[in-house]
Amino acid sequence: MQLNSQINFNMEIKILGTGCPKCKALENATREAIAKNNIDATVTKVEDITEIMKLTMTTPALVVDGKVVMKGRVPSQSELVQLIKK
Amino acid sequence: MNLQIFKSRNFQIALLILPFWCLIYNNLQPVTDRLIDSVFGMTKGAHFTEALRFFIFEFPKVILLLVLIIFFVGILRSYFTAERTRKALEGKKTFTGNVMAAGLGIVTPFCSCSAIPLFLGFVESGVPLGVTFSFLIAAPMINEVAVILLYGLFGWRTALVYVITGLAIAIIAGWVIGKLKLEKWVEPWVYETLLANSDMDESRINFDIRIKMGFEAVKEIVGKVWLYVMLGIAIGAGVHGFVPEDFMASLMGKSTWYSVPLSILIGIPLYSNAAGIVPIVSVLIEKGASLGTALAFMMSVIGLSLPEMVILRKVLKMPLILTFIGIVGCGIMVVGFLFNFIF
User: Fold this and answer.
1) Domain that holds residue A48
2) Domain count of chain A?
3) Residues 6+ apart with CB under 8 A from B221
4) ipTM exceeding the 0.90 mark
5) Do B113 and A23 touch (CB under 8 A)?
6) pLDDT average per 10 residues of sequence, chain A (86 residues)
């Protein structure tokens, strides 16, 4: 909550995925990245397919403030932090 | 492409690894022979010696092939996203569409959990149902692991036969499903789904990330299948020396006509990945099973899987799933009979 608290203020992160192993891995990795880097964000998992289809057809996907920033893979911790902060 | 790619960190790592790969791959046979004959000092020609020689040579060979090819396929797939494939297939005429869909099914990233979003995305954006099915048949059946294992354990001819017949089945089965006009058996909610209008900007993926996706694919897929490959080749090596020749001839040989449909029926509920099934099938063939029957069995196990049907049940009504299994099953049967007849 120090330097970057302003840019990250109350970010909204969504993990889109129907429940496959990769989707769970992405959810866990994202939560870890947020906790470790003190990012102020709410993480929700979206499993409803009609909701997912409104954003993308490739799962798992990472959505930050309504924008799809990454999909189809599980990035490393450092890449996740970059994706979320950008 | 410009010199920019050499600045990619992951590209540099890949370039560094490549010579080592070649060095190991090219020296597998001499090292294996040295190890068995000189270091272990085992008797040449004995059952156990030859079984061990087979295993020590084949296992690293197949793993090395998997690593190299999956790396390149991983990079290639970063260009063939589901969204691009959908765009390419939109509004295509049926037969051309079926051919394209089957081909794109090989290169577009696919796993059973992506089947539903893909199906929705395709059907909703106007890709004909039959064309969508050509994709859904080819994608799981012709995957890189199956093709590499076939190449490694049977040679390139069999791998090519598998790919071509698999493509033919996907094209024809999808075309037939299209002709039958089965849209009424698609769950109605499929047509009410709204499609993405704010999808990801492709420019987010640069060359460095694509190379990284190659590494990630290797880690994910090889990490998942190496154990099956090892078990399959170990069983293969064991059976190789100890089970009598022609053991399978009466069960899966050419002369027993019913062996083809029977192996397809057995194959549907059997859910195994290609990594587990191909080494076992290679042993079946060695022990007298005919190529057509073995091919049919393999296609049925890999291409028609029960878990995928259960997932597809969310978007398809039961009669359509049964029609799908029936048509693909018939296609596999024709392939089986054809190859038993030719060879």
Assistant:
1) 3-85
2) 1
3) B66, B70, B144, B145
4) no
5) yes
6) 54 89 92 91 91 89 92 91 86
